[in-house]
Structure formats: C-alpha cells, structure tokens
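task queued by scheduler; priority normal; single chain, no ligands, no partner chains; default sampling; output format set to structure tokens
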Amino acid sequence: MMTPLIIAIISGNKAYCNKYCDRGQLFDLIGGRFGLSLKKSPPKFLRSTWFRYGFLIFFMTMFGVMIYSTYLVFAGAELREAITFFWFFSLPWNWTNTAFVPNWVARFAFGFYGIMLTSTILGILTMILFKPRTWCVYCPMGTMTQGICKIKHRKDGGINGRKS
C-alpha cells in the first residue's frame, strides 16, 4: 500500500501506476486484449478534480472507519464476520475460519477485503462502460501519487528539478 507513495516521493512520477499496478494491468488485459470494454472516453466529471479528491476523501473516510472498527474489536467489541460491499451492504462471510487469528486481525481482513472488492467492482464497471483503465482516472492511490508529484515538482521548481 505504501509502495506507490514511496515511488512517487522518490521519483516524482507515477511509475507505479503506469507500469506496476496489478489492477491497471488486469483492466488492460480484460478490457483491452480480451475486448471487454466499450473503449469510450470516460465522462468529464470522472476526470474532474472535485470528483477525484471527493472520491479520495470518501475512500479514506471508509478506510478510517475500517481502522476504527478494527480498533473497537481490538478493545473488546464483538467481531462481526461480514464483508461490506459498496461500503453500505453487508455480505455474510460465515464460511471463514477466524479461530487461528486474533479477532482484530480478522476484522481488519474483512474490512480491507471489502474495500478491495468494492473498488475492483467499480473498476470493472467503469472498464466495461468506458476505456480499460478508467478506474485509474479516479483511483484514490493514483490521486494521492499525482498530488505528491505535483507538490514535488512545485518544490523542485519544475519537471525533473529544472527551473521553469
């Protein structure tokens, strides 16, 4: 989770997003190579700054709620074995065996899996409706790395440290 941010801080670019992101590569494969994408340009609102940062804030809020619920279980609250889909709908997950890990670890796993499942389904939907890597347009990690790059370039005085 920290790798894209560290790469952006060190290199000042989105190399992780462009070359190494497994989700972007998956969407390229199934949307591009396998042709499961309509290959239309995404709507302007998905590319807008307000939507990208609004989605990042919403996503980070949901991540914070997940961390808080993990803390509550760590502090003694009851573990509810459910995956939250689209952050609001609970899917029962009662076939898992959480007996071999502490309850707070299981809570973190359920929460993290829910976030990853939701973002993958959003990515697949936008991949099908638009271009294969449309998820990358509003991906919270991509928004954060882009913000780091903008700050780094402003601090360095331009692209690659050259004064503009």
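post-processing summary
- The mean pLDDT is 88.
- The first strand starts at residue 82 and ends at 85.
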